[in-house]
Design brief:
The structure is a single chain. The chain contains six helices and three strands. It has helices at residues 2-41, 52-93, 98-110, 116-123, 127-139, 158-164; strands at residues 114-115, 143-148, 151-156. A hairpin with a 2-residue loop joins strand 2 and strand 3. Helix 1 (2-41) runs antiparallel to helix 2. The protein starts with a helix and ends with a helix. The relative contact order is 0.07.
Amino acid sequence: MKLTLLRENNALREVLLALSVVLGFIFIVSFSTLYVSDAIRNNNACGCVIPIPYMILLLSSLGLFVGSVSFYILTSKYLKEKQEITKGMDITLSFLDGGERRIVDTLIKQKQGLKQSRLAKLTGMHKVKVHRLLRRLESKGIIIKSSKDRSKLIELRPELRELFH
């Protein structure tokens, strides 16, 4: 429970950091716009510390930089988590033999149950081999077979589906 709260707190902290960077940029642009409009109103547009064309270029570049930093802050954590999940999934699947791993990997990618015949086509294995591997996976408690019409629907157990998604 504490670990979940800590992760949520870190995610909130990163969102607030990105938001503060963007709000800081908005403040700088607003202040610069006010400064330039005041200089133009007083007929002193050429007397600005930074000439107006350069200020536009500077603010545009600053906007690109702020956008890039905000994007990096928000996505870096999620990319790391995705890599960790993929690594954990590979370690978990390493306990299965090659054919079983292909079947489970195919079921994970499909995100829903598949008919046994479709599973054979997607894995590129013969129907008999798929049937034998499915029987082994079912005895290990990894998959659930259910009858749908006249065919078998193959699904990952709900606990495993949550683990891999």
